[in-house]
Amino acid sequence: MRPTPELPKRLTDLTPVVIVGTSLWAVATVVLFFVTDGIWVETAFSGLVLGFIGLAIIAWQRAAARRGSKSAQRL
């Protein structure tokens, strides 16, 4: 049986997905701040915060992979 080929980096890199999602939450937060108040603004802000947490985790994993940590995901 032949070994499975590696996927191209553009198909495995999560950074563009997280950046686009975080940007959309930022736009939603600004729009909803001026249009309404309450739970919708809080929800959009929570999505924005979680997007930044996701970016921090991606950066943390990449730094660990560069250091050669055994537990780091190879990207």
From TrEMBL:
Keywords: Membrane, Transmembrane, Transmembrane helix
InterPro entries, per database record: DUF2530
Domain of life: Bacteria
Residue ranges crossing the lipid bilayer per the database entry: 12-33, 39-60
Matching Pfam families: DUF2530 (PF10745)
Protein name: DUF2530 domain-containing protein
